[in-house]
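Marked as duplicate of an earlier ticket. Keeping the data here for the record.
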Amino acid sequence: MNMHSLILRTAGHFLLPLLLLFSVFLLLRGHDEPGGGFIGGLVAAAAIVLYLFSMDTESARKVLRVDPRDVLGAGMVLAVLSTIPGVFLGQPFFTAQWWEFTAPIFGDIKLSTVLIFDIGVYLVVIGSVLTIMLNLAEAED
């Protein structure tokens, strides 16, 4: 039986999608202004932890849909892969690379290794925080 309050459950359901959307905004905003992968990942992890507190561990794992350790690993792979393109172009390791594409619907799109690295950091933060929090919640049960 779930002993959590109605207000907490309602807030958890309502705030989860809003906080996740805000975390993506922070991730994408981070190149030119404050924000980025770390703070975006913290906000996303906090959203799922709020849902964990409002519901239970199993519900939080269903929202996440994958094991948080897999999210952490995928983030590490992305972060490492983002450092390599500069080496193939004869530049120092970790040199940022920028590519521009023209899409018929979106217009000009700029993609960079900086964004790929930030997405990797975003996933590492989500994976590490949720691994810790879910393990602590399961140990308490």
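See parent ticket for discussion. Strands lie at 98-103, 107-112.
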